[in-house]
Design a protein that fits this description.
By secondary structure, the protein is of the alpha/beta class. It is 52% helix and 11% strand.
Length: 210
């Protein structure tokens, strides 16, 4: 029997402006509280300085940054990589970074032939070299393809960095774990991209000063 798409006229548009305003206020309050906690956390500030330094050292030695994530975190991985290859705060030379989420032929071939859990690990093994840095982004800290990529990256001699949420507790193959001060996915992602901007800004200040 052929599939029949539901009619858009089947159900009336539900309008609840008071509920919408309450949702928006709650979202913004949680976002502001998490960002305030982030801004005042000296441990996270020190960690971002360390991450910026180690990525800068890798790039200065001829290495590169590899990034990966799923869904919204794939978008964040691409966003962060693009800040390195293009620019962030000011015009400067491009910096070596590759998002492993953008090559549709590799993504589909690896997923089809080996399984989706291998989709980033095989790219890490193909493109990564000792001294490179792999940044894996997972709000839950449990994405199988990110965890496998961490394992293979470490075996291949890459420095591994995880961006995750506050509920993540055990990442044995990760050298540096940046845990966003939230357990709510939308806010975790907001903190991740802010942290990515800060790290990139530190790297470009060190490698490409004005």
């Amino acid at each position: 029997m052929p599939f029949a798409a539901p009619s858009l006229d089947a159900a009336p548009l539900h309008m609840d402006l008071d509920g919408d305003r309450a949702f928006m206020r709650d979202y913004l309050d949680k976002s502001a509280a998490a960002m305030s906690d982030f801004a005042s956390d000296r441990r996270l500030a020190a960690q971002l300085l360390e991450l910026g330094g180690l990525i800068a050292d890798s790039l200065a030695a001829g290495g590169k940054l590899l990034t990966a994530g799923n869904g919204g975190s794939a978008g964040d991985a691409q966003h962060i990589a693009s800040e390195f290859t293009a620019r962030l705060m000011y015009d400067r030379r491009p910096l070596a970074a590759v998002a492993l989420t953008t090559d549709s032929s590799s993504l589909t071939a690896i997923s089809n032939d080996y399984g989706y859990e291998h989709v980033f690990a095989r790219q890490v093994l193909a493109l990564g070299r000792p001294g490179d840095v792999f940044l894996g982004i997972s709000t839950s800290g449990r994405s199988p393809n990110i965890l496998r990529a961490f394992t293979e990256a470490r075996r291949a001699g890459l420095t591994t960095i995880a961006f995750c949420g506050s509920a993540t507790t055990d990442l044995p193959d990760v050298d540096h774990v940046f845990s966003a001060s939230s357990d709510w996915t939308p806010v975790i992602q907001q903190i991740h991209i802010t942290a990515g901007h800060i790290v990139c800004g530190i790297v470009e200040r060190r490698l490409c000063p004005r």
